[in-house]
Amino acid sequence: MQEQTTFLLSPQFSTESANDVTAAILHEMELNVEALKNLLISYHYKSRGRVLNVSIVENSIELINPLMAKFMVRYAVGQFNACADVDFTENASMEILIDIEPDNLKAIITGEYIPEREHDEF
Q: Which among 14, 54, 69, 112 is most buried, taking Cβ atoms within 10 Å?
């Protein structure tokens, strides 16, 4: 399983990225934290978990090439079910890949690949 989502970059991205690409990426991710949160939620949907306190580790942004970078995101996963007496929150992190399409001002963010378990044979 690997999740991916797309969002639109702000019109200022081209100007900001000419000065400092990593700062421009950080700024765009802060503007689009909901897209990032939704990507993370899709990884924790099966456990009915909720995702809280999403933050980008600022010094983790690493350029792979001029239009692609990776960075770490920290967040908390929580679950509450009063009937089952379940109430917990645990910290998590994930490496995210961002692929920038400057011509149409789009960015594609991709989460980590997590292999799914195959069915057991009897």
A: 69
